[in-house]
Every structure is written in C-alpha cells, then in structure tokens.
Amino acid sequence: MRRTIAVSSCALALCAAAVLSGQMPRNLDQRIARIEGHLVPTITIKDRPASAMAIAERMRFYNVPGVSVAVINGGAVEWARGYGVLEAGGSEPVTPHTRFQAASISKPIAAMAVLRIVEAGFLALDEDVNAKLRSWKVPENEFTKQEKVTLRRVLSHSAGLTVHGFAGYEAGGPMPTLVQVLDGVKPANSAPIRVDVVPGSLWRYSGGGYTVLQQMLIDMARRPFPVIVRDGVLGPIGMTDSSHDQPWPESLRGQAASGHTANGKVIPGRYHTYPELAAAGLWTTPTDLARFALAIQQAAAGKSELLSQATAKQMLTVQKGAYGLGLSLDGSGPIARFSHGGSNAGFQCLMVAYVETGQGAVVMTNGDRGAMLAQEIVRAIAAEYGWRDYPGTREKTVAQVDPTIYKAYVGRYEYAPGRVIGIRVEGNMLMATDGRPDERGVELLPESPSKFFQPVQALEFEFVRGPGGEVTHMIVNGSTKARRLPSS
Q: Choosing a second label site near 52 at 20 to 30 A (CA), which of 146, 162, 175, 342?
C-alpha cells in the first residue's frame, strides 16, 4: 500500500506541473478513465461500428489476470497504474512496482549496454565478434568466408545467425550453461546458433544473435552479464525495479507476476527461466522501461550523459529491414518512433515511444494472449493523447464466398514448436481453435476465398496451396508461416 501511495503522489506532482504549463487537462483521472473505457479491437468490419470496451472486460476476454501500464507525456512519466492480480485466483494486486518478464524488450537494454562499451573504445561496431569471444566462437563456414558476424549486424538482426527465440525452462528442471545454449547441447531445448546465410545479406530476427552478444560481453568484461547491464544501464537510468534474476528468487515471490497460458492457467512453476539474458531475461516494470525510453529520447536530443547523440542516432537509424540497433523503427521526422515487443511463456508486453515528441507508453501483461490487449491499450492511449500517425484500427469488408471451399482448409497448423492452430468447419462457418478438439473456437470471416480474419482477436489467416493445389500452409497475421501437419 505504501508503494502505491508513493507512485500516486508522483503522478499528482507530474500532473500539477503539466497543468501549469498548459500541456494537459486538469483532471488526470478523467484522462485515464477515458483510456480505460475506450479500447477498440485491431480490426473492425465495414458498416459495423466497433463499440468501445473497458480494460477489465478485455482482460477477461484474453484470459489475462494482470496488466501494468506507464505513459510518457511531455518528456516525463506522467502516470503508471496496475490492473488485476499477480496470479489467477489470487488477491495480490498488480501495482506499478510489480515486475513482469520483459521477454524480447531485454534486447534494446542489452543493445544500450554494449553501445556504451563501444563509446568507451573497447568494442567496434563493424569488427568480427570472434575477435572478442573467448569461451566460444561463432563457427566459421562457407557463409562467413567473405562477410563476418559483426556487432552492428547482431544488434540489427542481420548477422545471418539462426534461432528466432527461446522457450525457456520450467521451474525445477535442468538448466543449460550459456555455451550449451550456443551449441544446442542438452539440456538446451533450442537449436545450435549458427550462420546459415551470408552475414549482412538479409534481415531475420535472431534471439540467437543476442545470446552470442551476451557471451561476448561476459568474455570481455569477465563479469556476470547482470552486473554489466546493472552498472552500464539499469543503475545510471534509475531502473530500480529491474534485474536479470534468472530464476526469480522465491524470497521475492510477491514482487513478481506469475505467467499464464492462453487459457488463463498459471504456467507450471509460475514462470519459465531464461538463461538467454540478453535476448529474454530481464524482469522489470513499465515505469522502468518508460525511463529507458526517455533515456533514448534524451540522448537523441543531445541531452544525455549516458549515450552520445551520435550513438543514439545510430540506434535510431534503419540498418536493415525496419530495425535499428536494438529497436524497431517506424516513421520519420516528427512522427518517427521506436518500439519493441516481448513474448515469453506466460508474458506479453509492448514498448513504444516517439523520438522527438516526448510521448510513449509501455504495457506489460502476464498472459499468453496479452499481445493484442497491449496493442488495444496503446491505441487507446494514442487516441487520447493525439499521437501523430500512430496506426489505428484496420477496416475490413466481409466477402461473399462459397462455404464448400472451407473443407480444403480443415486441419492443424504449427506456427512454432508445439504451438498449433486448429481449423475446422461448423455448419457454414470456418472456425479456428488453439488445436484442442474440445475448444469451442472462434469464427473466421472471409475477406476473399483464401484470406480470413477474426476482428476481436485480430487474427488474419491466408491459406496457401502447393503446386498440386493442396493447402500446404497458412500465413498468420501477414508474416508467420504455419505449416499444415499431417492428418492423424
């Protein structure tokens, strides 16, 4: 209770200062209430206006027990609030100090840590990482003969390294060393991290690359990775509710949210452990991540002692695809913004901020279906604060198609190891489930004979046929390939 009061006092002080400067309404609670009650789905249907929904309603819909939110406005954290509970069935509330797994938002934190070392002259962005690795080396092969794995390429996901992400390890189970993760040796549950395309030739997301970075920093500094990041980033920024405790200490159980499955059940052991600290191992709060975003904004404006303006601009300059050094990038000039999402077992989160306007938000959730909820909350914040050019809802038209074509799409589609989407027909409706035969499922609406969508859950499926005309896979939400599994 004492912590909650302290945060509220801080929010009131920020509110008063902003009122005097004429930057915001006098009643911050009214502004927050409008956001809490005006969430809208990602996809709307033409001629069917979407009604605004309350955050509590959407939490129930997505089976997400807890959410934490922080909003940046006027170059400061204007407010932060927690919603729901740490664990389904419990009563301990989420507060602004409740820690969540940041998942892949760990990557930009690691990026800033290594860029500070670059500025100190101990590393070079375009040097072969093998020059600094000691405990392990990136195996050389035909792809690395001419082009090398460099720090710049690792940070921008263009180093040609494999392994998209990590599943984590259940509590109480065997834990691999970092070198075992790098080589894919048991008890590691991920593939070896290797170069399988020419470095620099394409953009491809690689948590494996950030694991190489983690080993490189440990080898260079001869210090534990959590200490390197604490001293280089977390401490200087004032991220006092952040750490790389893996596994999370039982003595601090009440300070952290539990992870939950898509059905709202607590995952075994409450959370998975991630030895891949640079890629996925940070525990933090939206307020601390908002402080991190503010540090980037300040550095970009040349107002930071933490990072030079030149280095910040490199972070915020597209290197490959739409990615800078540790950050996803959108827009340019006054509407330029940076962001990163996160997805660990039982946790989903989103950080987004504008480079120049001093605006942004962070949402963290403790449920596997929290990504869409986080996007809905950020859209409501964007609408309330008048963020320029922030993507709103997408309007789609329901097409008239012959339902007899649905039979060809029936089956099970795997989009990640062990993660399956089931497609079945019920009457004249095409339904999607999480792969369990007893799940009721949700109706997919046709956009064309091969493209379907589900507006409330923001799902988009495109069924793809092979040379023989049979459906071989589907594309989920425009980018994720889900292969059709053999029928049993």
A: 342
